[in-house]
Design goal:
two-stranded antiparallel sheet; 74 residues; 2 strands
């Protein structure tokens, strides 16, 4: 594995700590998961097919409800 020195703001560090505590994982794992989402967005951006990255919620009827659209990554 490689190491990556990273300078982040206090606000981002606080958010990372809170997410890690909430999910019972290491801060490094939060960053790895965030990178996975960014890689997914990049993959679909390369396709240039109008695909949008969004946050969805499963409804009781089994449908997906869009609750947020991710914009401005690239």
């Amino acid at each position: 594995m490689r190491r990556l020195p990273l300078l982040i703001s206090n606000e981002i560090d606080d958010s990372l700590n809170a997410m890690a505590a909430r999910h019972g994982i290491a801060k490094t794992e939060v960053i790895v998961k965030a990178f996975s989402l960014l890689a997914l967005a990049d993959h679909h951006w390369l396709r240039q097919d109008g695909t949008t990255l969004a946050v969805v919620r499963d409804t009781e009827g089994g449908e997906l409800e869009v609750i947020g659209k991710v914009q401005g990554l690239f």
